[in-house]
Structures are given as C-alpha cells and as structure tokens.
Design goal:
By secondary structure, the protein is an alpha/beta fold. It has 7 helices and 5 strands; from the N terminus they run βαβαβαββαααα. It has a 5-stranded mixed sheet, with helices on both faces. The radius of gyration is 25 Å and the shape is elongated. The relative contact order is 0.09.
Length: 188
C-alpha cells in the first residue's frame, strides 16, 4: 500500500503554496492510494491522522510526504521515527528528496534537512516573540471586561451576593471570584 501524509501547521497555510490541497494533489500524482492529513504543528508527534497512519502501515508499505518537515520539526523525533519505519520495512519517499534509507549518507542528509527545519521553526518563534514584545501583545485572550466595569462589579460585592452581582453586570460568578482573589493577592 502507498500512503501519503500531508500536514499544515495553521489554517493560514491552507491558502499558501503548502496548502493541504496542494500537498494532496502532489501525493496523488506520486501514486498515493490513501492520504492522511493533519492541521497540527510539526513540533507535536501526537497528531491524530499521523497516529492512524503509523498504526496502519506495515512492512512493504510506502509513506510519501512532500517535504521532510511534514514529518516533524524536531531532529530527534523525526530522525528516530524515520529510522524505525525504515528498519520495520516501510519505504519513506520524500518528494523533493527521494527515497530514504538508513545508509550513512541518507541519515546525514535527512538530519541536515531536519536541522534546517528545526532552525526555521525556532527563528519563527523568536521573531514572533520579538514582535509581540514590541507591540505589547504578549498573547493570550483579550480581556472581556474593562477595568471600570470590573471595579464597579467589585464595589457591588460589598452590598450584594456574587449571584446578584453576576445578574446585574453580566459578569460570571467565576470571573468575579477570580478578580476578587486577584485583587486580594495584589493588595498588601
């Protein structure tokens, strides 16, 4: 059996040249009979469709990917996995590279390509963090309630119960409890 595996890290890649559709077309053209695809970061190995593929593949089968970094972005994880699959009798065909084996040259080449993939991902993370620092956006969800609205709700708690204040302001009881606790911890 010839399997294909396609992966994008984010939904925004769906419209780029590495979209799932583009990868699937390439995999079909290369002879893939069944294609598994995920929208997951390459830093995680526990991707649902990838797991299904690994559980289904048997000696004599072939796995095709468009590029080496579709397997993973971590050198150690991908290299170990590819070595295990080849030792198990599974052929690994990377479309922009060729069929891999466990010869010294093939291992060196794949580890170099994986190192560049991991480097690229690390650089993306660094640039993203720098951009967030400069813009003041440190990630996370935006606050749902403004400070004045929370101040008002906390003042109401002096006269009313949490349930009553929740009904009056529309702020959930759990949010009121968290905010009250946060304020109590920050005051001396």
């Amino acid at each position: 059996m010839i399997y294909g595996y396609a992966r994008v890290s984010t939904r925004t890649q769906e419209t780029s040249g590495t979209s799932l559709e583009s990868q699937k077309e390439q995999l079909k053209a290369a002879g893939a009979e069944r294609i598994f695809s995920d929208c997951y970061t390459g830093t995680k190995m526990d991707r649902p469709e990838f797991e299904k593929l690994l559980n289904e593949v048997v000696p004599g089968d072939t796995i095709i990917v468009c590029k080496m970094d579709r397997f993973a972005r971590s050198i150690s994880q991908a290299s170990e996995l590819i070595t295990e699959l080849i030792d198990k009798g599974v052929t690994i065909n990377v479309l922009n590279l060729g069929v891999l084996d466990n010869s010294s040259m093939s291992v060196l080449l794949r580890n170099m390509l994986l190192a560049f993939g991991q480097f690229e991902r690390d650089m993306i993370v660094e640039r993203t963090q720098e951009g967030r620092k400069k813009s003041g956006n440190l990630g996370g969800r935006p606050h749902k309630y403004s400070k004045p609205k929370l101040d008002h709700a906390i003042e109401l708690l002096e006269q009313y119960s949490y349930n009553q204040v929740s009904e009056m302001t529309g702020i959930s009881k759990s949010t009121l409890l968290r905010e009250k606790q946060r304020r109590n911890q920050s005051s001396p």
